[in-house]
Specification:
Structural class: mainly alpha
Number of helices: 3
Shape: elongated
Radius of gyration: 21 Å
Distance between the termini: 24 Å
Strand content: under 5%
Length: 97
């Protein structure tokens, strides 16, 4: 019986490593989307409750310039993460083939 490390090193193990990397693509994308959606929903719910408590019946308050700047920075960070993680996995896939 072969060990996992010998499967990854041998020529026949290339199929295994390719499958593992492709599986990581799917798991990473699913995890990223799940975390993003959950964080977005909880944040929106929290902000609506705060706005209503502060006297805005619609649940939305006007955005300040500082908040808009933070939103832009957060979008940039999430965008970079959304590009960087799959890129690293794609490079790993490319270099192990």
């Amino acid at each position: 019986m072969r060990s996992w490390s010998s499967l990854l090193v041998t020529r026949g193990g290339g199929v295994l490593i390719d499958t593992l990397i492709l599986l990581l693509f799917g798991v990473t994308a699913l995890a990223f989307l799940t975390v993003a959606v959950i964080r977005m929903i909880t944040h929106q719910r929290r902000e609506k409750e705060r706005a209503r408590a502060d006297g805005f019946p619609s649940g939305e308050r006007p955005r300040t310039e500082e908040q808009k700047g933070r939103d832009k920075q957060t979008a940039m960070i999430w965008g970079c993460a959304a590009l960087a993680v799959p890129a690293v996995l794609a490079l790993a896939y490319f270099f192990t083939r």
